[in-house]
């Protein structure tokens, strides 16, 4: 169909008065990504003019989540490309618009439009300014999920990867909650901290203020200078450090190593640049390196280390291989 839809039809739908034919028209119109943001703009404008239609978000979320669970593999037209985001389970504050989405029974639409998705490519560092004035700096290969009604129904975000958060306090002392994919929660009011949630593990570093760290096994309050690492069973291992600066060196594309094994360096290269590094033998993998190095791509870092450690770097397709120099 022609991808145009009158604002009047959507207003009719928002008011719960749309006909089955109009609902089908909206459904088809929303299959096109360029229309999805426009939908939310019109919805926000309409709700501002009709506050009596605002719903309690808790039951809307429960019904919406049940719908998503029933439609784990929704059918999609062959000409529609699904948005490149994954489903995120935010808990209690899903906005009233969820009720609007529920009525359509659109699994794809509900999963992609409930939040904004900020992402970084390998080697990229990006800053995101949230509606409450809080600032998030994303490290490479990271994702931040922010609900579209952030601030109005709570301040909860989800992080995959690594980021620094500078949280702005609010007049009503509204908490700010960061959730990670493995279940760690960081709760603050106003502070500066950094989270790394990678396959190798989760680490939380507190720069200023105070935060409450919650896992499946433990809760702990961190103080400035604390570095907390989350174990496999959810246990928290806390360490007080003299300086947290090395944990934020990535913001300037710097790598800080302190008796770091070559195996750990290879893992970081894979996380940050998406380049797999093979190490020829276990003895070489256990060698350590100390120092600070500037690098904006994998080869910049590996070639410097090769000279320092007297090793060879060879390319195998998109991968790299480290071996002892002959």
Provide a descriptive summary of the structure in words.
It holds the Pfam family FecR_C. The chain has 326 residues and is an alpha+beta fold. The chain has three domains: 7-113, no CATH class; 117-246, Jelly Rolls (Sandwich); 253-324, 3-Layer(bab) Sandwich (Phage tail protein beta-alpha-beta fold). 29% of the residues lie in helices and 31% in strands. The chain contains nine helices and 18 strands. The chain has helices at 7-14, 20-30, 33-49, 57-70, 97-104, 107-113, 262-273, 282-285, 298-309; strands spanning 115-119, 126-129, 135-138, 143-147, 156-166, 176-180, 185-188, 192-198, 201-208, 211-214, 219-222, 226-230, 236-240, 254-261, 277-279, 288-294, 311-316, 319-324. Strands 1, 2, 3, 4, 5, 6, 7, 8, 9, 10, 11, 12 and 13 form a 13-stranded mixed β-sheet that branches. Strand 2 and strand 3 (135-138) form a beta hairpin. The radius of gyration is 23 Å and the shape is globular. Residues 54-112 have low confidence and may be disordered.
Task: Outline the fold blueprint.
Layout: H1 7-14, H2 20-30, H3 33-49, H4 57-70, H5 97-104, H6 107-113, E1 115-119, E2 126-129, E3 135-138, E4 143-147, E5 156-166, E6 176-180, E7 185-188, E8 192-198, E9 201-208, E10 211-214, E11 219-222, E12 226-230, E13 236-240, E14 254-261, H7 262-273, E15 277-279, H8 282-285, E16 288-294, H9 298-309, E17 311-316, E18 319-324
Parallel strand pairs: 5-6, 15-18
Antiparallel strand pairs: 1-4, 2-3, 3-5, 4-5, 5-8, 6-7, 7-10, 8-9, 9-12, 10-11, 12-13, 14-16, 17-18
Helix pairs in contact: 1-3, 4-5
């Amino acid at each position: 169909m022609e991808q145009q839809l009158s604002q009047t039809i959507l207003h009719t739908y928002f008011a719960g008065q749309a006909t089955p034919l109009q609902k089908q028209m909206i459904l088809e119109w929303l299959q096109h990504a360029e229309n999805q943001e426009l939908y939310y703009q019109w919805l926000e404008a309409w709700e501002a003019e009709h506050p009596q239609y605002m719903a309690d978000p808790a039951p809307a979320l429960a019904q919406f989540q049940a719908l998503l669970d029933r439609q784990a593999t929704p059918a999609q037209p062959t000409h529609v490309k699904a948005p490149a985001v994954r489903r995120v389970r935010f808990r209690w504050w899903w906005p009233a618009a969820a009720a609007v989405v529920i009525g359509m029974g659109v699994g794809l639409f509900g999963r992609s439009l409930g939040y904004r998705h900020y992402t970084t490519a390998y080697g990229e560092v990006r800053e995101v300014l949230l509606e409450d004035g809080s600032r998030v700096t994303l490290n490479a290969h990271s994702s931040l999920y922010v609900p579209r009604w952030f601030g109005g129904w709570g301040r909860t975000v989800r992080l995959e990867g690594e980021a620094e958060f500078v949280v702005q306090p609010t007049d009503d002392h509204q908490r700010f909650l960061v959730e990670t994919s493995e279940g760690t929660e960081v709760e603050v009011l106003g502070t500066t901290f950094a989270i790394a949630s990678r396959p190798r593990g989760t680490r939380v570093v507190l720069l200023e203020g105070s935060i409450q760290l919650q896992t499946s096994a433990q809760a702990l309050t961190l103080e400035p200078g604390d570095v907390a690492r989350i174990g496999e069973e959810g246990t928290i291992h806390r360490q007080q450090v003299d300086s947290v600066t090395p944990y934020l060196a990535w913001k300037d594309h710097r790598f800080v190593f302190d008796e770091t094994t070559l195996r750990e360096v290879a893992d970081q290269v894979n996380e940050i640049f998406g380049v797999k590094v093979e190490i020829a033998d276990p003895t070489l993998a256990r060698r350590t390196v100390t120092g600070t190095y500037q690098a904006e791509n994998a080869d910049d870092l590996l070639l410097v280390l090769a000279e320092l450690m007297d090793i060879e770097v060879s390319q195998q397709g998109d991968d790299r291989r480290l071996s002892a120099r002959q």
